[in-house]
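During the second half of the funding period, the structural biology subgroup turned its attention to how the target accommodates small molecules. The most pressing case was cytidine-5'-monophosphate, which had performed well in the primary screen but for which no bound structure existed. We therefore specified the complex as follows and requested a full 3D prediction, including the ligand pose.
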Amino acid sequence: MQKLEIKGKDRLIVALDVASMDEALSLVDELKSEVGLFKVGLELFTNCGTRLLDELKRLEAPVFFDGKFHDIPNTVSAASREIAKKGVEMFNVHAVGGGEMIRAARKAADESAAAAGVKSPILLAVTVLTSMSQEVLSEELGIKENVEAVVARYASLAKAAGANGVVASAKEVKVIREVCGQDFLIVTPGIRPSWASDDDQKRIVTPKQAVELGTDYVVVGRPITKAANRKDAAKRVAEELNV
Ligand code: C5P
């Protein structure tokens, strides 16, 4: 059954795509009451390090750490141990790292969170980056199946290895649901409310369409962070997610 109990606000993950700690913290301060989680990506993390995660914890702002780990199982295990200790709500790895790597991430995160007395984070897998075209998959990487089949296979592998869900585009939600069922979490970027600019996103859906397609969480950046009234924009997106 679809997780109907999730409120619009709780489905909303705002991408903190800013460079500095000050900018990130001021966004969080402004939007915290309207938003479920904040996504910390590689730019911000490279600039601010784990001090940012400590600050966000102090502000009681739930974090999706979008570090997309992909390395040998031992290294991903160690990185997962460290990130889970920080009390993040979600983090992710690349499914293409394989089952052993995903299992290592799951085990390390569970053990480390328990030792630190925090909740074990949701582990997400990235299937095929949406920036990858069929041509790149086939010509450069030698993967001859179509993108959807690869996404389905990677999602299924991630689930079997202990991931709680995947990051996926709206158009992949259907096939992931078919393969992984209703309880597997799907986090979808590429979201544009009808009133916002597309920016550089190509295959966009509105927040309402994303939920109707069966996603659990949406990642929204610029339509909120670049809005004239950011709080109001977040509120409007959250309302639309109340499907
Ligand atoms: O500003 P915008 O809403 O386009 O930001 C979307 C966020 O989701 C960015 O942080 C982007 O890196 C991320 N993302 C994406 N598409 C993917 C995976 C992640 O847009 N396939």
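Two results from this model are relevant to the next phase. The chain has twelve helices and eight strands. Residues 15, 17, 41, 129-130, 167, 189-190, 199, 201, 219-222 surround cytidine-5'-monophosphate (CB under 6 Å).
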